[in-house]
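Justification of computing resources. Each target in the renewal requires a structure prediction run like the one illustrated here; the chain below, 297 residues long, is used simply to show the kind of job we budget for.
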Amino acid sequence: MTSMTQEQFQDALNARVSTIEKVLVSALPKNITKQKTIADAMEYSLMAGGKRLRPMLMLEAYRLFGGSDEAEIEPFMAAIEMIHTYSLVHDDLPAMDNDEYRRGRKNTHIVYGEDMGILAGDALLNYAYETAVEGALKLKDPANGLKALQILSRKAGVYGMVGGQVVDVELTGKPISEEQLDFIYRYKTSALLEASLMAGAAEEEIAQIECVGRLVGLAFQIQDDILDLTSTAEELGKPIGSDLRNEKTTYVSLYGMREAEEAVEEYSKEAVEILENLSEENEFLDQLIVSLIHRKK
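Resulting structure tokens:
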């Protein structure tokens, strides 16, 4: 397999982010009147920037498994980013992490009030499913869309992200075992990344791509733990030291910095190895995963 240069990869990454931003803008509610405040809060939250990793992974999985009409996958790309964004909006609330900044600007509940922060998250979650259902109904085979919707809903709920968040909240400030930390990371972070890849995958290779998502999620979350201690608020776009402040056990506090750094690299490389053994290949997707090892924000 040939390797893209760093410049080629960065150009490809920027192009994909630009495409995703257009998809998100197009998917937002239109013609809102009396409830305009919530539409504004949804847009403020969704269009706050970020890596757009989840819709990007979904798009690349769709391409990897032979998808040719990207309009088919775009509603699901928008949906997964709305679900991810709602979780961030709610995470930042005073009852949760109580953070004021994310991605370098004030959080939704700071700008619109705590009540609208809660409702903006609720609205994004509901609108995600509305968007995905409408996308599924437009497919030549709506059963494929129904399967993708099943994956999204399960991985976002009590058997996925919400389940992981529940355990994370309950164990904050308490001693935590390796098994419990693994559960939190697998469900709170990995679940949506798994869903992103699985929604665009071929049925016969869905188990392998789910494993890729799990590994990428673990690497991503551990790198977050590292950056929370080693980066700056300016570079991250959000306060650092929040894990320590909120008395959360992390991979770094449990295993140490060196082992955490080694784990990020190990999980990422294992994910790429699985991808390279699939029937098809996607060079950009391989390099995207490798790039997570050295990310600074």
